[in-house]
Amino acid sequence: xxxxxxxxxxxxxxxxxxxxxxxxxxxxxxxxxxxxxxxxxxxxxxxxxxxxxxxxxxxxxxxxxxxxxxxxxxxxxxxxxxxxxxxxxxxxxxxxxxxxxxxxxxxxxxxxxxxxxxxxxxxxxxxxxxxxxxxxxxxxxxxxxxxxxxxxxxxxxxxxxxxxxxxxxxxxxxxxxxxxxxxxxxxxxxxxxxxxxxxxxxxxxxxxxxxxxxxxxxxxxxxxxxxxxxxxxxxxxxxxxxxxxxxxxxxxxxxxxxxxxxxxxxxxxxxxxxxxxxxxxxxxxxxxxxxxxxxxxxxxxxxxxxxxxxxxxxxxxxxxxxxxxxxxxxxxxxxxxxxxxxxxxxxxxxxxxxxxxxxxxxxxxxxxxxxxxxxxxxxxxxxxxxxxxxxxxxxxxxxxxxxxxxxxxxxxxxxxxxxxxxxxxxxxxxxxxxxxxxxxxxxxxxxxxxxxxxxxxxxxxxxxxxxxxxxxxxxxxxxxxxxxxxxxxxxxxxxxxxxxxxxxxxxxxxxxxxxxxxxxxxxxxxxxxxxxxxxxxxxxxxxxxxxxxxxxxxxxxxxxxxxxxxxxxxxxxxxxxxxxxxxxxxxxxxxxxxxxxxxxxxxxxxxxxxxxxxxxxxxxxxxxxxxxxxxxxxxxxxxxxxxxxxx
Length: 647
What we know:
The chain is α+β, with helices and mostly antiparallel strands.
């Protein structure tokens, strides 16, 4: 059968079809025309103004002197680092809320308006006969409205989203642990800065007064030099000593001012805000904890770093399960309702449904590799956790050891400061109208003030070491009520500190052993003030808890007596002053030294008995720690010791 094929009608002008394409190309090229634009000075200035306004918004005003707990409360409420960690926690919680929605099925709603420029026309051809229709036909309107509601749920996507949400939930807990660590660090920093700033508050005025006196004395010395009232080498040495004192005092003054600024920054106070601290008593420092093994157990259970490692291990396990689930066959259920306004359709609305099962065979083959990687990751996590645990146990031991050392250092420095204060009192009473006397007073005032500064710094270091013990254990502040003010947070801090101290510093039983009695002897050359010096040493020993006895005139020294040999050494006078050294030696049974110490001070060129006695007492007070150590390791002296002492 012959089939007549009609010629194909000429196609429409091709340039009409290119118009939409050209339009989209023009839009794409317009997007590529974006160039870098720097921020303007006005924008930067506005940003700076806004930031400064937001830094200190909604903060309670400082209404009076602050205690440490109030300082720490302000640091916890307003410190920017803490606010950042709180915001990061809120961000993690928001990401968790988003991840939860990924587990829900998909529900898509679509509605639209569809049109096309030429009609969707076509001819048909019979497959068996090859006959083509004579005319173009269409089954779709050129303009129509469509809508659909599609429900789709994939079991594989649900499993993957479930483990992803679990990982995000663990990330929220990691953010909380990091916030805990920031709180603990803020408490340590504020404790250290508070006591340093309190020292600055106590000493700044005294340093200013002494600086003014030193400058005035320096001006007087320059006038004396100009008028030739003193030998030039002597007056220049005097000026040199004054300048050294002024420079050292100015340096300490700067350190004190920086301490107050650091504390203000911790509390997030606006720059220049005046504040004062309660003149708190320097409470007696407890002995270093001895229950170190128990403290290590507490730290391993409470430290944020180890809890973070626990959550990281859970994240790793969820990651492996998520990878395994993604390799399993995926079952998808689809149901959708559709609408089409096309008038050529028999039914303009209908429902589709389907059930599909799919699997990536290569992904399934990777499961053994995933299991091996999981095992390796577990080993890495365990090794990291063990290293962290070892570091934490070391930190606990170091913190307790450092606290004990800082307490000993503070006791030594406090004793030295007390000695310098007594020497200053003597220098003031012995001062004359000569320039040398005034210089000696200023020297001793500077030394006493610097010793007081060192005492405050040593106490601040001991307080910081005290706080580091709590930090190494991972202790947390009792949570105050939501939206609590500074006073409520401060009360929570006080309660927490009381609880921590009771659990960490376990009272130890008092020592039952008695210190040995001390017999004091004076080494040759014998000075005229022999009896007064021996009496001063015995007085100072008694004040520090030692029992003193007379040296036997004949026979061996008793086994429970420690012989302390005192040797005063006077250097040649120079510039109206003399360096005097008190040396101590504990004599063993064989006559050898069992411990040595010395203390040096500047006294007038011709020191009297009061000056030497005060120096002897000061030397004992400054050496009390060493004396206690010598007493613990003392060996009973024998006959040769008695003979050596009487020679």
